[in-house]
Each structure stands twice: as C-alpha cells, then as structure tokens.
Design a protein that fits this description.
Layout: E1 15-19, H1 37-51, E2 55-59, H2 78-86, E3 91-92, H3 99-106, E4 113-115, H4 123-126, H5 130-137, E5 142-145, H6 156-160, E6 167-170, H7 172-185, E7 192-196, H8 205-214, E8 217-220, H9 224-231, H10 246-256, E9 260-261, E10 265-269, E11 278-282, E12 293-297, H11 299-310, E13 314-318, H12 331-342, E14 346-350, H13 352-360, E15 369-370, H14 374-381, H15 387-390
Parallel strand pairs: 1-2, 1-5, 2-4, 3-4, 5-6, 7-8, 7-13, 8-9, 13-14, 14-15
Antiparallel strand pairs: 10-11, 10-12
Helix pairs in contact: 1-2, 8-10, 9-10, 11-12, 12-13
Length: 396
C-alpha cells in the first residue's frame, strides 16, 4: 500500500492539521514534561510544513481522561517546551473544537502554530463520531498523520477526519516507521533475531506467529516466560501465569521447534520491591519455590542471548526481560539493550519499556530505529490493518 508523503503536497498558504503523538509522560502534578522524546520526534514534520509555507494546527491525545477534561492530562505543559524546541511562538487553545478554536484558526497566517487541547477530553474522539470528525476537518485544507503510535486506532483524529479532507498524507516520522517496520516483514538480512518480552502472551500471539515465519530465532523474556514453562510442566512458583493461554503456549512451542528460545535461568524473589532479596535458579533443573516468583532473566541466559545477538544481521525487540521498573530486576533488560547496540546488524526497538531501556542504557544512538508506537508496531508486524494508515492510502 503506497501513501502520499507530506513532501509531495503543496502546502503554500494552507492550513495543515498534523496529528502528532504528544502522549508524553508528565510529572505527578501534570505540570511538567518528564520526557520530550515524542515531541522531538515530531519536529521534522512540523518544521517541513512551516518551511513549505503552511499554518500548522497540531493535535494529540494525552493519557486516558475518559472523555472529559482533566487538568493533569492537559497539553498546557507541552506548548512552552515546543516553543523552545522550535524557536517560535505556539498558541495553545483551551479546547480542540468550538468557537474559540474556530476563531483562532481563522486568524492564522503562514508560519503560525496552534496546539489544540487534548483530543480525548471529548468522548467523541475515541468513538470516531462523525460530527466530531467533521469539526476537526473543518479546521484545515490538508491533513497529515504523523502519530504512528495511534495509527492502529480508528478515532476521529486518526481515521474519521482523513475521510473528510481531500488532501492528506503521512508525516516524516510515520514514513520512517513504515519504512523500517516493513523491512522486518520483507526479506531482512539473516540471521534475523526477534526478542519478545513483557508480561503476557495474550497481547503478542499474532506477532509471535508471524515471527515464527520470519525470524531465525525468537528469544523470550519477561513474565510471559512462565506461561511457556508451566505449559511444559515446569514448576514456576508464584510467577505470573496466564492459565487460559496454556494451550496457546503449547501450540507455539510445538510449532516453533528450536526457533523459540526460553530463558535458561531466572532471577527470583519473594517480594516485588526494591532491595528485595534475590537468587538465581536454573530454569529446568531447579524449581522456583512456591513462595517466590521470577522477575528477570538470569546471567546464563544473558550470556547466551548476547552470543546469539552478536552474529545477528537483523534484530527486532519488543518488551522487557523482567520487572524493569524496579532497578534490581532490570539487569537483564539493560543487558539486552547493550547487546543490541553492540551488534553490527540493523536493529529496531519498539514498546515503551524497551525504548526506556535503550535510553536508560545510553545506547540510543547505536540503535537503527526506535519505534514510537509499541501497540501499533505489534499490530503492523502481526499483519493487522491499521485504520490510521489504511485511510491514507493513495487509493482512498
């Protein structure tokens, strides 16, 4: 499926609605941005639109306010940060639709930037309400979607508006995401190693099936490990278990053969808290005690995974190897970050915790591509339709 790029559209004198992904973390008071990664990722598209003579309207969601205004999820803290990064004034609105917004947009000139308030302050956004979509569409001459992280959602700002605006395109970030993720599906270099972690198998069944077709090895980590082990009759103590996915786990194991690689050893603990006592157990010869649970891959697994990655020509990683938010249980995840960075192969990292691990390890400049869309990248890799991208096809 081909898509028109923002590069290909004449934006001179046009009002351009850019759906960005400013779903950034804020401090507990909702007054300060604690990570500007996603904002910086949107800058090239915004700057290109300005250079091409557009007036730019920026729209995003932030958090899950459940269809009503919530002060701790306002985009207010983003405007001054965006002004600093762009070096020019940004007008922040009090809403994303309505008379105030219509008036401000009507007064815009080329080079102006308006940042709309959180789209999800209206339940109509997630409902893809036709009237709400029409209100958004009425603001612009051109629609650009640069929010890959929301492309798997058929919301008003990602799908509904695009059906109503004649001129539409993907932004530079979206273009980059599609370019790299498409590589993972079409003739990547080999050996091709997929690393899949996280808490549950349930959210990754389809992508695991796809990796069984595409990858040479799938290295498993995170709490999903224990559902796979339990499915083989191995004692997992109090580790997280998806009982309703045991048959799925067995099916994947049988289908995978030696492609699926489970951890050799585990860091276990009785308490999920910092400074808790831990020890390492052999995954197959030493059962995890009933009062303890697995929280990270062990050192033997780290060594084996590192050796596997050292020769890889293509690596894709989604999901942490352990309870990454607790430093004592983050060693395996950080070790994977360093191993991927040290590999000479092309590397793609997606998912919030995996991305955070890359940045915590300080190796982001050694990764080929860090995806901004965890859920969207999994949907794309699994072969599912992404409404926010499908609607931008040149044939629509």
């Amino acid at each position: 499926m081909s898509h028109r790029s923002i590069r290909d559209i004449d934006l001179t004198g046009k009002k351009v609605f850019i759906r960005v992904d400013f779903n950034v973390p804020l401090d507990e008071n909702g007054t300060e941005v604690t990570s500007d990664t996603r904002i910086r990722a949107a800058l090239p598209t915004i700057q290109l639109a300005l250079r091409k003579g557009a007036a730019v309207i920026l729209a995003s969601h932030l958090g899950r306010p459940k269809g009503r205004p919530k002060s701790t999820m306002s985009l207010d803290p983003i405007a001054p940060l965006l002004e600093k990064l762009l070096g020019q004034h940004v007008t922040k609105t009090g809403d994303c639709v309505g008379d105030e917004v219509n008036h401000l947009v009507a007064q815009m000139s080329p080079g102006d930037i308006v940042l709309l308030e959180n789209l999800r302050f209206h339940a109509a956004e997630e409902a893809n309400d036709p009237d709400f979509s029409a209100q958004l569409a009425s603001l612009c001459d051109v629609y650009v979607n640069d929010a890959f992280g929301s492309a798997h959602r058929a919301h008003s700002s990602t799908e509904g508006i695009a059906r109503l605006v004649h001129k539409k395109a993907i932004g530079l970030l979206m273009e980059k995401e599609l370019e790299y993720l498409t590589m993972a599906l079409s003739k990547p270099e080999r050996p091709y190693i997929a690393i899949v972690g996280g808490a549950k198998i349930s959210g990754k069944i389809d992508v695991l099936d796809r990796f069984l077709e595409l990858a040479d090895k799938i290295l498993i980590g995170g709490a999903m490990t224990y559902t796979f082990l339990h499915a083989q009759g191995i004692a997992i103590g109090g580790s997280l278990l998806e009982k309703d996915k045991l048959d799925v786990a067995r099916t994947i194991i049988n289908k995978a053969g030696d492609k699926l690689v489970l951890p050799k050893d585990h860091v276990i603990t009785a308490k999920l808290q910092a400074d808790a006592n831990t020890r390492v157990v052999d995954g197959y010869n030493e059962p995890i005690p009933s009062n303890m649970k697995g929280v990270d891959i062990g050192p033997a697994t780290v060594d084996f995974y590192k050796k596997t990655l050292a020769n890889a020509r293509f690596i894709i990683w989604n999901g942490p190897m352990g309870v990454f938010e607790i430093p004592e249980f983050a060693r395996g995840t950080l070790a994977m970050a360093h191993a991927i960075a040290e590999s000479s192969g092309l590397s793609i990292v997606g998912g919030g915790d995996s991305e955070k691990a890359i940045r915590t390890a300080g190796v982001e400049t050694s990764i080929t591509h860090i995806s901004t869309g965890g859920g969207a990248s999994l949907e794309f890799l699994a072969g599912h339709r992404l409404p926010g991208i499908e609607v931008l096809s040149k044939t629509t």
